[in-house]
Each structure stands twice: as structure tokens, then as C-alpha cells.
Amino acid sequence: MRKIFFSILTVLICTASLFAVDYDNLLKQAEDSTAFYNTDFSANYTLVQEKPGEGKSITEAIMYRRDSAKMWTILITGPASEKGKGYLQYDDNIWFYDPADNCFTFTSAKDKFQNTNATNADFAPQKYYSDYAIEESVQVKLGKLDCVQFTLKAKVENVDYPMVILWVTIDDGLVRKKEDYSLSGRKLRTTAVPSYQLVQGEGKKYSIPVSMLIQDNLRGKKIGNEMQYEKTQITIKNVSFKAVSDSVYTKPYLELMGGR
């Protein structure tokens, strides 16, 4: 009887723990983990794009972010044919700079970054909690990870995707997988974040993805009997939270760096 009692008690405790997750707070934690409002952020990004039947292409860049002011700058450092090009966001506008003609052109958060499967919005803070409402939340396993799977519907206009399904690990509030959907429910992209790196900032440590793999479900090719989709892997290295000059977030900075 004692063994039965303790078995039942264990089940009840485990069941209670399942319901102890604060879903709203977990989603907010997932959003907060993508932003750095108390510090500058910089890192080296390598994007490897794979097009079925066409091979791979590599783009290298340096990213600077000041989330408190909604500003970021990306300077392309490779390949040689793209070196010196750049992106700048300020005042909710995104500009693309091409040193070939010393010209800035307006772009948007939804546009493809350097014709990869990433968009400009992928490099900025994500608004999972601010811009979306929870339609459904369920605790699931993602491999060995205990996650909450959120189905999110946009509650504001001008979002990148009307519906998002998000897998967030319960113990740390980090996004492990994301699926982006159209208004009609068509799956557009899948992003996987297999691992994170802990980087010391000013007074705290931040969790930064080691890499992200984005699959574009709209761009692909049938090879043999199998549909293969375009993929872009983003690797993040040399992360720093040291302050950078205000001049980095300006058009003259991109003009100066593009002329080198």
C-alpha cells in the first residue's frame, strides 16, 4: 500500500508541475531573450545558403545593434563582390547601401537579406509576446527538450507573419524552433536553433544562438522524386556587448567603410 501511495503521489506531483508553467511569462521570456535593451551588441555572422542543384554560397557580415534606440547596422565583409555593401535601420526605416554607385535605397524588414532565406527582420528583436496572441499552448517534447509549443496569431498589423508556431524550452525560455505561416495557413519557413552560447555582458550573461537553420518552404526544386528546399545556416561568432560609437549607426559610416 505504501508503494502504491507514493506512486500515486509522484504522479500527482508530476501532473501538478505540468500545470505550473506560466505560459504568458514564458512567451515574454522568449521575446526578451532576443533583445538587448541595456547594451550595444556586435557579432560576426556567416550565412551559408544552399540551393538544391546549385551548390552553396557564403556571405559574411558584421552586425551592430542598439536595441534601446531601434538602430542596427550590418556591414558585408565577404565575398569580395559584395564587400562594402551594408544595411542601416533607424527611425523604423531600413536602408540598403551599395558602394558601387554610392547610393542608399529603401528596403523593408520583410525583404530577403542578400537574397538568402533570411529576412532583415531576423536580425532584430522578435515580438512574440508584444505582437501576437496565444491561440494554443501545449507541453511537448522536441527531441530531448521539454518545450511549450505555442500557436500564435497576430494581434497587430504589419507583422512579418500572420501566424507563428513556436517551440520554447520550459527551463530557460529560449526559442528552439519556429514555423512561419501565411494568413491562409500555408507554411512558409521553418527555423531551427539547436544550441546557444552564454556570453558575458555588462552585469549579466546573455544566451545567443550558436547557429540557426532557416528552411524556405516556398523556394525549392524537385530533384528525383524528392522536393528539396533552399536553406540558409547562420552562424554567430565573436559576440561582444561593448559600447560602440554613435557614428556606427549612421549613413556616413557605411559610406566610409564601403569605400575601403
As a whole number of angstroms, the C-alpha radius of gyration is 21 Å
The secondary structure category is mainly beta
Describe the sheet with the most strands.
13 strands, antiparallel
Order of helices and strands: HHEEEEEEEEEEEEEEEH
The first-to-last residue Cα distance is 80 Å
Please count the beta strands (DSSP E, at least 2 residues each).
Answer: 15
Kindly report the average pLDDT value.
Answer: 91
By DSSP (H or I, 4+ residues per run), the number of helices equals 3
Q: Please give the order of strands in the largest beta sheet.
A: 6-5-4-3-2-1-15-14-11-10-9-8-7
Tell the overall outline: globular
Pick out the low-confidence regions.
Answer: 9-18
Amount of beta strand:
over 45%
| Proportion in helices | 10-25%
SSE diagram, text form:
Blueprint: H1 2-18, H2 23-32, E1 41-51, E2 55-66, E3 71-78, E4 86-90, E5 93-98, E6 103-107, E7 132-142, E8 145-154, E9 163-169, E10 175-181, E11 187-192, E12 196-200, E13 205-209, E14 211-223, E15 226-240, H3 251-258
Antiparallel strand pairs: 1-2, 1-15, 2-3, 3-4, 4-5, 5-6, 7-8, 8-9, 9-10, 10-11, 11-14, 12-13, 14-15
Which features would summarize this protein structure in a list?
13-stranded antiparallel β-sheet; single chain; 260 residues; 3 helices; 48% strand; mainly beta; two-stranded antiparallel sheet
